């Protein structure tokens, strides 16, 4: 029977058969959880009871009216600030290491090394650095006679998020540097040489020639940075558990606590969808800004 089919039809049937398994896996592990998340956001469920109670929009109303929840979102903005600094430093190092600097390959490896380290190992390493009693930073400050600066870094509400943001900068700046470096090496050397022949200095060449040619890469890095900062979870969870008094809680750690500590999966689902909506809005704004700059 198959032999009687045309070659084109056999080809389409074969393609469909090959696609069945990946599409089934996508439906089971991606589409179904997404649809179920939306369904749970309209329910009241403790995660254990077989019955779920219809809650309508009450979960979303609670999310938008709860100041404590949105306070955690402001903590994410601190990470976003450090993420922008991280991108700026990554671009600066990429510009520096794209030149004929002696030993540049060794510097590239050194700057990229933190990114390949395990996130949990990085968290515990910096726990020893910023520990208030025996941490290396406070020990150094006390040895220099700067005892007033030797504070409890993880115990200070004003400092804890900036400390965690600095750790993310240390870990991910090398990745940004490598991406920017690859983009810089794709810029035509003829364009750069032409700008120098026309009398542009190095700074003018960077601003008016090099950066406009890597706008898409800058947009990509900012895209990844925004997503990462709005979904930060591992560092505050491992190092501070959201302390002191919730000062280092992020939107995602608050969502996880709502689901697994307070057994309110409906509210947690609504918070998750709210976070997705916030990411879409912020990324849309970022895209409009970078597009205007690129033009």
Detail the topology: elements first, then pairings.
Layout (H helix, E strand, L loop, with lengths): L6 H34 L2 E2 L8 E2 L3 H8 L1 H31 L6 H13 L2 H11 L6 H8 L16 H27 L2 H9 L4 H12 L1 H16 L3 H6 L11 H10 L4 H30 L1
Antiparallel strand pairs: 1-2
Provide an overview of this structure.
This protein is mainly alpha-helical and 295 residues long. It has a domain at 58-123 and 161-294: MetI-like (MetI-like fold). It has 13 helices and two strands, in the order H-E-E-H-H-H-H-H-H-H-H-H-H-H-H. The protein has helices spanning 7-40, 58-65, 67-97, 104-116, 119-129, 136-143, 160-186, 189-197, 202-213, 215-230, 234-239, 251-260, 265-294, and strands at 43-44, 53-54. The protein starts with 6 loop residues before the first helix and ends with a helix. It comes from Cohnella nanjingensis. Keywords: Cell membrane, Membrane, Transmembrane, Transmembrane helix, Transport. Belongs to the binding-protein-dependent transport system permease family.
Characteristic key phrases:
295 residues; mainly alpha; MetI-like fold; two-stranded antiparallel sheet; globular
CATH topology of the domain at 58-123 and 161-294: MetI-like fold
Radius of gyration, taken over Cα atoms and rounded to an integer in Å: 25 Å
Main beta-sheet strand count, sense and barrel state: 2 strands, antiparallel
CATH architect. name of the domain at 58-123 and 161-294? Orthogonal Bundle
InterPro entries: ABC_transporter_permease, MetI-like, MetI-like_sf
Transmembrane segments: 12-39, 77-97, 109-130, 150-170, 220-239, 259-285
Keywords: Cell membrane, Membrane, Transmembrane, Transmembrane helix, Transport
Family: Belongs to the binding-protein-dependent transport system permease family.
